[in-house]
Design goal:
Elements (H helix, E strand, L loop, with lengths): L5 E9 L4 E3 H6 L7 H6 L4 E3 L6 H16 L8 E4 L16 H4 L9 H9 L5 E4 L7 H15 L4 E8 L17 E9 L5 E9 L10 H23 L8 E3 L5 H11 L9 H6 L6 H11 L8 E8 L3 E8 L1
Parallel strand pairs: 4-5, 4-6, 9-10
Antiparallel strand pairs: 1-7, 2-3, 6-7, 8-11, 10-11
Length: about 325
């Protein structure tokens, strides 16, 4: 079956109600860099969970997506969880309580299974992905695409929900982080949102990311350039064919550099959410895809390039025809 028959049928996301500006975060000691520096990188505010839990936002995003798309619950073949690991939910939703529950059977309170139950996906199988950091949803897209084409699944619901650890502040290597959940519906058949090609590079040499931080930074751009070029080649596209780059929300400056290396015109970067949402870890690209679609910026036939990097270290790209 052709790869072009597997489509991203829709996305939805949920954010915490509370937002904090970069300057507020700096004043609260939540940043390692100055607010001024992060503002020059394009960041304005992030969303910070106070009363919300990762599961609650995951349920909200998934429920919204299924309702918007009019999907009957018994028509979902697979629920693919690509969010916070199960141990973070061991005490029923709060990651901070996990250590007290590790010695009990509460550690088997898997969020994917609870989500299947709460959504009423009685016919759906369940899988989960982990250890791809901010590119975990790209791994989910790859698995969903493969299963639709190899096993004939019609519909896969991919869900990611990640909160930055409360004790970790709000910065990850010059990126201002936000709490968020995102749901993506992958379907076999259709013509819109076709997943044309995927690309991935994983380098285990960087598993000790603290010890090799400088080397990771040095390898980021050449490896990203390679993955983007390889994905475009697989899609049969030239850099100038790309209508929009739907990014992960890392430094705007880093995107300007990467686009220069790939040959994709800089005005093709859809960057509006860097300032208003910050870096939502695995959800960035698909949140941006939803917002770009809602804004009317994406038209049928547009060629979209999604790219993300997962610390530890993974580079992912996805070519989509709208």
């Amino acid at each position: 079956m052709s790869a072009a028959t597997t489509c991203i049928a829709g996305t939805a996301y949920a954010l915490p109600a509370t937002s904090r500006s970069v300057r507020e975060l700096a004043a609260a000691g939540q940043l390692q860099s100055s607010a001024e520096l992060l503002e020059t990188f394009g960041f304005g505010q992030v969303h910070v969970a106070t009363a919300e839990t990762p599961f609650a936002l995951a349920l909200q995003a998934a429920e919204a997506l299924l309702t918007e798309r009019g999907v009957e619950r018994d028509r979902v073949d697979l629920l693919l969880w690509a969010g916070t690991p199960a141990v973070a939910y061991a005490a029923g939703g709060a990651a901070a309580d996990a250590p007290s529950a590790l010695g009990t059977t509460r550690r088997f309170h898997y969020p994917a299974m609870r989500l299947q139950y709460e959504l009423g996906l009685e016919r759906a199988d369940v899988l989960a992905l982990d250890q791809l950091a901010c590119s975990t949803l790209f791994g989910a897209m790859r698995v969903a695409k493969a299963l639709c084409e190899s096993e004939g699944l019609d519909r896969v619901l991919c869900v990611s929900s990640e909160f930055f650890p409360g004790a970790a502040g709000r910065e990850a290597i010059f990126n201002c982080t936000t709490d968020a959940a995102c749901a993506v519906l992958v379907e076999r058949g259709g013509t819109a949102g076709r997943m044309v090609a995927t690309g991935q590079a994983s380098k285990g040499y960087y598993w000790d990311c603290d010890a090799r931080r400088d080397e990771i930074v040095a390898s980021y751009f050449p490896t990203a350039r390679h993955v983007v070029a390889d994905t475009l080649r697989r899609a049969g596209w030239q850099p100038g064919d790309v209508t929009w780059v739907i990014p992960h929300n890392v430094s705007l400056r880093s995107w300007e550099i990467l686009l220069g290396l790939t040959g994709i015109p800089r005005d093709r970067l859809w960057s509006r959410n860097i300032a208003r949402h910050g870096h939502s870890l695995a959800g960035d690209n698909f949140i941006n895809l939803r917002d770009a679609t809602d804004a009317g910026d994406i038209r049928p036939g547009d060629k979209l390039l999604l790219f993300s990097y997962g610390y530890g270290a993974h580079w992912h790209a996805l070519a989509v025809e709208a």
